[in-house]
Input
Amino acid sequence: MAKIVCVLYPDPIDGFPPEYARDTIPVLNSYPGGQTLPTPSSLDFRPGDLVGCVSGELGLRKFLEERGHTLVVTSDKEGPDSIFDRELADADVVISQPFWPAYLTAERIARAPKLKLALTAGIGSDHVDLDAAIARDITVAEETYSNSISVAEHAVMQILALVRNYLPSHQWAAQGGWNIADCVSHAYDIEGMDVGVIAAGRIGQAVLRRLAPFDVRLHYTDKRRLSPELEQELGLTFHPDARSLARAVDVVSIHAPLHPETRNLFNEELIGSMRRGSYIVNTARAQIVDRDAVVAALESGQLAGYAGDVWYPQPPAADHPWRTMPYNGMTPHVSGTTLSAQARYAAGTREILEAWLDGKPIRDEYLIVDGGKLAGAGAVAYTASQDAGNS
Ligand code: NAD
Output
């Protein structure tokens, strides 16, 4: 029988379950491109329920306990005395998530001799030291596509919010003002702007598609060039690297995985090469940008705005400078964990567990590491090296 340790974000401060704003979520038929939605044998939750927090348990307890397995769910993940660290010692499976990452460092993996499966509830497994997982033959898997459109919607929202100066304008209204000149002194239309994505994978392509109707000029860079048909359909300008793209656009949206090639990519020099008053939205991973270079660029006016939902570490300290830097539209790491997204990644988590517990293959598109090497979606997105993962 297996022991599954699951680290999830804490319950709402007003208690669990919350009062839901809606009774249902839309039923989707497939993901863009035709990948099928998760196919667990059944579900023990109502799609649209808050299953992503501790009391929600990803809807897994009944299914696992009926089969005789042990499920431990906690949000206590920091330090050697945390519940996570203690339970890790004899865990067969760890489920964690990018929003509240239980960082599976090489040291922690060394202290988990039975660990065979590291499952990400969501997308982005850089909180797992992939090199250590490869060395130990631990399978790493995630629910590819489960929240890609959720993130794309968030990125487009934040681009518009920054360029149009939405959040400060809302503040003026909420605090009883009518300060139109103050609101619009920093507000523009995106129509006619150059907007580019760093990486045009599932999320990057969805952002490009959603921005096309805004009559912007679209740019992208990726290790893999898109088809000429798609470039033509969306009117895309391809750039061979981030350096070329950064200086050609007004808005950058970052959608690359965190790995050695992308870590610290947007440093002082690259940000300094952008047009004055550019905007950056980063819903990928915080360490793709230099924390302090972003703050300095906002203070000097080199950047007119920065938004996103990814921080390092997570949760960030109360005095993290991104909480208070000028013209920021930061949210906590929420874009990929809407109630809609949770329904899909919780169902996908169960699908993967059912396969693994029955000794059946996990879908190739869910795999990041398997058989001691990068596999499936992971072989496309990541590079393995000593620097990959764990942060
Ligand atoms: P994907 O695998 O579909 O696409 C990744 C793309 O990045 C690929 O096209 C790949 O070729 C490209 N790429 C990799 N290294 C590159 C490099 N050095 N330069 C240029 N391109 C490079 O992944 P996805 O589903 O689009 O997700 C992308 C990332 O978004 C994830 O790795 C994760 O870190 C992040 N994410 C964040 C959230 C959130 O809640 N904020 C949710 C899901 C994913």
Summary: Confidence is low (pLDDT under 50) at residues 386-391. The longest helix spans residues 339-357. DSSP finds 14 helices and 13 strands in the chain.
